[in-house]
Amino acid sequence: MTGMDANPSTEPSSTEHDEVARVSTDCVVVGGGPAGLMLALLLARRGVRVTVLERHGDFLRDFRGDTIHPSTQELLHELGLLERFLERPHADVPHVALRFSGRPLVLADFTRLPTRRKAIAFMPQWDFLDLLADAGRAHAAFELRMRTAGTALLRDGERIAGVRAEGPDGPVEIRAKLTVLADGRDSTLRAHAGLEPVGRRSAIDVLWFRLPREQGEEIPFMQAGDGALLTIPRGDFSQCAHIVRKGAWLGDTRSLEALRRRAGALAPILAERLEALRVEDVRVLDVRIEHLERWHRDGLLAIGDAAHAMSPAGGVGVNLAIQDAVAAANALAPGLAHARPTEALLQRIQRRRAWPARATQAFQRRLETVLVRLAEPGEPVPVPLPLRVVQHVPAIRHLTGRFVGLGLRPEHVRSE
Ligand SMILES: Cc1cc2nc3c(=O)[nH]c(=O)nc-3n(C[C@H](O)[C@H](O)[C@H](O)COP(=O)(O)OP(=O)(O)OC[C@H]3O[C@@H](n4cnc5c(N)ncnc54)[C@H](O)[C@@H]3O)c2cc1C
Fold this sequence. Notes:
CATH topology of one domain: FAD/NAD(P)-binding domain
Radius of gyration: 22 Å
CATH superfamily of one domain: FAD/NAD(P)-binding domain
Helix content: 25-40%
Strand content: 25-35%
Mean pLDDT: 91
Order of helices and strands: EEHEEHHEEEEHEEEEHEEEEHHEEEHHHH
CATH architecture of one domain: 3-Layer(bba) Sandwich
Oligomer: single chain
Largest sheet: 9 strands, mixed
Bound molecules: flavin-adenine dinucleotide
Low-confidence stretches: 1-17
Number of helices: 11
Shape: globular
Number of strands: 19
CATH class of one domain: Alpha Beta
């Protein structure tokens, strides 16, 4: 495997004196996550030559967003991909329901959304990314280079002119009219462009781990009270998330004991399975709510988590990343094959997408006050007043369903 899709749109070349391959394209995207692959697919289907760099060899990583919201499924329909999406293993969730201090609650209801699909689909992110990558490969203008990491930005004077990368065949310089950073919340190239995220550190971390799952077993999706535990069914195992105070997980047996105790109390059915969990099976998500004040430079645009790292609250990260990609593609596709985008155009993309991201982050910060209380061991947290109100007023559950399921300013795929 060369880590490269065959694609006539870029011509590798190198000289005898120089081991660096040099190629050029219209757009180079660093990061083959939801934002990067969706942007590349949308640009390629409109004839813009695009190269995506993904540093991993596959998409098989466990600890990533799994929720594909109705807004994203609507976009898949617009792209003619919804049926193929639904053929992949997934679980439909028409309501966000949880048990809070023993009380069943419904927080959001998607059943009245004005979309074809009225449920969140839980699908391992690798399946979703495989679908986008396969759909991209159907277009001659699409190139995906796996096992290729962007390492530095290329410049023409002040302008960002592409990316230097390390791939399976050695170093490569990819020159492009536009460089897109879709390299996630830990983007390293952001700093090379002088873009630094700002924001407050969250007071919580999330511990992720897998537990075996019995065939057909139904465990509540979310359980809260003295702690909080999320359980996502995935065939013969459950993907679990447990909230702790920031820094509480020390990666030792005491931390593991605390996890077993608290998660086991929330879900006694899992207690025995938790006993088999080892320290090295637990991954820590350092929760951050951050944003870039400026998403662009001359020749460069950041989207998705690279522009705004979201808290996992509400499971909206994938969907916001996708919305950024759609807005960017709608704005860029008409001209990018012929000319470099102006900074004014890049600024318009930021203006369109920054406020939905910031407003969603503001909501996540409010939610965090509850999550912080749940993270602290002690007395069970009583059901917060807003959650109690939601139970008594069904209209609010439809509104929260709209906010979570569609998001603010939902985007639509523009055709030629
Ligand atoms: C543990 C966890 C659980 C989550 N749960 C949910 C959830 O349930 N629902 C939800 O909606 N969101 C969730 N999120 C958030 C969600 O995964 C992200 O918001 C979403 O994936 C962002 O998409 P993205 O494309 O912007 O970035 P990412 O998905 O982070 O993709 C970035 C890609 O860039 C690649 N990359 C990074 N640097 C380089 C480089 N230099 N060169 C080449 N490639 C590079 C990475 O390998 C990665 O594939 C979760 C996140 C985590 C970490």
